[in-house]
Amino acid sequence: MSILVFGATGQVARELARHEGVISVGREQADLSDPGACAALIRETAPEAVINAAAYTAVDKAETEEELATVINGAAPGAMAAACVQMGIPFVHISTDYVFAGTGEAPWQTDDPVAPPNAYGRSKRAGEEAVIAAGGTYAILRTSWVVSAHGNNFVKTMLRLGAARAQVSVVADQIGAPTPARDIAEACLKMARQLVLEPKKSGIYHFQGAPYVSWAGFAAEIFAISNLACEVVEIPTTDYPTPAVRPLNSRLDCTTLETVFGIPQPDWRRGLQDILKELAE
Ligand SMILES: NC(=O)C1=CN([C@@H]2O[C@H](COP(=O)(O)OP(=O)(O)OC[C@H]3O[C@@H](n4cnc5c(N)ncnc54)[C@H](OP(=O)(O)O)[C@@H]3O)[C@@H](O)[C@H]2O)C=CC1
Ligand SMILES: Cc1cn([C@H]2C[C@H](O)[C@@H](COP(=O)(O)OP(=O)(O)O[C@H]3O[C@@H](C)C(=O)[C@@H](O)[C@H]3O)O2)c(=O)[nH]c1=O
After folding, report:
1. ipTM more than 0.90?
2. Catalytic residue list contains 120
3. The pTM is what?
4. What atom of ligand 2 comes closest to residue 59's alpha carbon?
């Protein structure tokens, strides 16, 4: 099955590219700030499904570039989804825990009200709305805290800080879970294949590693596995001011993904070990 993937250089797209049938395109082939060009590429390539793994992911920078982020994260997926409708093929789109306000402690359900706390989250919500409005066969996969051996992510930041410092202060009151990019890629492929045969499975789904953890707890696990003697000092979010507000509660209820698509939650600790091994090699 031929699957066109946007976002070639990104964490998830790089994992997708390991699979047979994936045609990976980057910024040179299609710039998401030109949504029409993305739609045209889908029509020219005529794949059997499309996965959009490209996005504006610089959370703090988005506060001052919300317009651009909204074109890339909102209008472009909308144009891609519309092109998929024309071609009669499914569209798999990745979204984020940052569409939720982050209040309370209960895991977010797929149909809970959204209230993005920052510009990135608003731009990603615009993408969800545009994909749904296109009216085709689609899956929106909300995930969180993506990690891999490639690109920019929290694991690589902590390894850098942990090697240079005796201690690092990390927020302990933002709770969610890391999700390995490799598992997200596999989930997206399974969803794309099933949607071809069963378009009724269209909808919003959640996919996140297990178990829940704070960023501080995650940092401690990274140091423990890496044998880095760096101490994690647990701090409240108020002691780590950032341009963009982050949600305190990023727990996602992933039940429907398992029920509908047969995709279980991965244990992020196993994924983390693989990533650290890959980085060491
Ligand atoms: N990273 C995370 O923690 C999380 C990510 N997500 C979502 O998961 C998906 C995949 O994220 P992830 O793999 O981490 O992303 P990355 O940040 O690793 O990569 C983003 C990709 O998008 C591409 N891109 C950005 N702007 C444009 C543009 N104007 N035109 C073409 N390509 C562009 C980048 O290309 P280039 O290299 O050229 O800049 C890069 O390939 C995204 O939808 C993201 O919102 C959801 C939850 C958490
Ligand atoms: C580097 C560092 C970060 N932090 C905090 C800041 C923040 O609250 C948290 C994570 O930091 P980051 O900047 O890596 O995370 P951030 O860029 O906010 O990560 C988010 O990216 C987008 C794309 C998503 O969709 C989200 O799911 C989420 O993964 O850790 C510390 O407390 N200490 C530190 O030394």
Report:
1. yes
2. yes
3. 0.98
4. 17
Looking at residue 192, its pLDDT comes to 98
- Which amino acid is it at 15? E
Tens of pLDDT, residues 206-255:
999 999 999 999 999 999 999 999 999 999 999 999 999 999 999 999 99
Protein residue with its CA nearest to atom 2 in ligand 1 = 146
Total of domains in the chain: 1
Contact 268, 184 (CB under 8 A): no
DSSP character at residue 171? E
Q: 118-174: per-residue pLDDT in tens?
A: 999 999 999 999 999 999 999 999 999 999 999 999 999 999 999 999 999 999 999
Q: List the one residue out of 123, 148, 15, 102 whose CA is nearest residue 59.
A: 123
Q: Which residue's CA is minimally distant from atom 28 of ligand 2?
A: 145
Question: Does ligand 2 have an atom closer than 6 angstroms to the CB of 179?
Answer: no
154 lines ligand 2 (CB under 6 A): yes
Strand 213-214 to 175-176 pairing: antiparallel
Across the chain, what does the average pLDDT equal? Answer: 97
CATH code where residue 106 lies: 3.40.50.720
DSSP string, 51-107: EE------TTGGGT-HHHHHIIIIIHHHHHHHHHHHHT--EEEEEEGGGS---SSSP
Is residue 56 within 6 Å of ligand 2 at its C-beta? Answer: no
Residue 13 domain flag: yes
Q: Name the residue range of residue 38's domain.
A: 3-147+180-208+252-266
